[in-house]
From TrEMBL:
GO terms for cellular component: plasma membrane. GO terms for molecular function: ammonium channel activity. Residues 483-505 have a biased composition (Polar residues). Residues 482-505 are annotated as: Disordered. Keywords: Ammonia transport, Membrane, Transmembrane, Transmembrane helix, Transport. Its main location: membrane. Pfam families: Ammonium_transp (PF00909). The chain crosses the membrane at residues 16-37, 49-67, 103-124, 136-157, 177-194, 206-224, 236-257, 264-281, 287-308, 320-345, 365-389. InterPro entries: Ammonium/urea_transptr (IPR029020), Ammonium_transpt (IPR001905), Ammonium_transpt_CS (IPR018047), NH4_transpt_AmtB-like_dom (IPR024041). This is Ammonium transporter. Belongs to the ammonia transporter channel (TC 1.A.11.2) family. The lineage of its organism: Eukaryota, Fungi, Fungi incertae sedis, Mucoromycota, Mucoromycotina.
Amino acid sequence: MSDTAPSDPTYKSGDIAWTLMSTALVWLMIPGLGYFYSGMARSKNALSLIMVSVISIAVVSFQWWLWGYSLTFSRGANRFIGNLDNAFLRGVLGGPSIATPNVPDLVFCIFQCMFAAITPALAIGSAAERARILPMIIFIFIWSTIVYDPIACWTWNPAGWSFQMGGLDFAGGTPVHISSGFASLAYCVILGKRQGHGKEDFKPHNMSNVVLGTALLWFGWFGFNGGSALAGSMRAAMACVVTNLAASTAAITWMLLDYRYERKFSALGFCSGAVSGLVAITPASGYVGPGASVAIGFVGAIACNLAVKLKHRMNFDDALDVFAVHGIGGIVGNLMTGLFAEQYIAALDGSTIAGGWINHNWIQLAYQLADACAGAAWSFGVTFIILFIMDRIPGLSLRVHPDIELQGLDHGEIGEMAYYHVEKVIRIDPETNEPKLVEEVHQQIHPNGEPVQGPESNLGSAQFSSVINVDKHGNEHVHHVEQVSSPRMSGEIQQRHNPGALNNV
């Protein structure tokens, strides 16, 4: 967040408008994250990941009103956490915010609420395809209170120990990315591996959703980083420039790193790289110029790409690579902020910093390392304890029943599906050569692979048309035309005709 601000407490409508628009952009990132996660998972769990992402908005918004904002940004905070002076948003209205007099307290409150909401949504990605939703909702509330709020307080509240030490974190390297990355590591360790892990090839089921999610994240990140200036200033503009540049550099870098394996330009590699660059530039976005952002995006992509391989060596099941991208990417970004932070960038809105190594402020790297390590240790340790205790409380066991895991969380936990199947039988009139619909059957695929019709038809997705051509002798010839909207269905059909094909169930 912005370190200092102009002394004039008069609000400018442009500053308020930019902060509110940035709030909406960050909100949009959360369903974007859901689509990103949904596409990377298997089709039978696609809807559940979108749902838990948007559920995070609702749970954290309530927690933020109840006491989250007060615990993070109350003026009576100690060096670790705030008090309850502003619980229920008491006294949060038109006075200058604690971060800057550029915007009123209420505007700053709702802007920061979106940061608090997206952080647990990031963390729960590692638990994809096997975690129960009810305990996850309770976990989000507890985790936000005793993990996110203290870290955000010591990072951004002027009373916090990291803030007073001189740590630099413009938009959430430690509170958002390091905390979510190391919480995700604890979550996947407690839950254990998915059934078939190490034996089955868990490939993304819908790359269109991954690209859509990446686009929404990238778009929203302009508000995430640029909005953290809390003013329509040149510093905000620079934050947007370096955010876009780091993401672009990282996307190309990761794609080229993956190109060496199969000589293909992977869409997944491009999207993963873009997100890693966005993560790495987050803490530095208000402190570095364009040249440094290229270096941060490049190094961030390489580090996160290598970290993805690390999970295979260490044999833990981080389903969606949250730790590799957000945990490692956040640490890289924090440390490189200590190297490349520049005084003139902060001065674009009147702020004053000592700078990083580039300004011969050698101690800054140590400050950044201390902040990153403290955030990582607190997040992993407390998350592990929370989940360990919850898993032993009757009714709050974290993992779904094995049968539900095989069936899919969409059916087992939500009862609604992301995809469905339609089969049409069409007869071609031999005289007019016009198609005529003979039969249309709505059906979906049961986990055992058999088609199910009627009220039980709520799994799977695809479209098939059986086209009947009648020749001049009156003989009927049936041709099957397939229109697939679920790669799971596509895989099953391919397997019938080509037993060697992979089936991403």
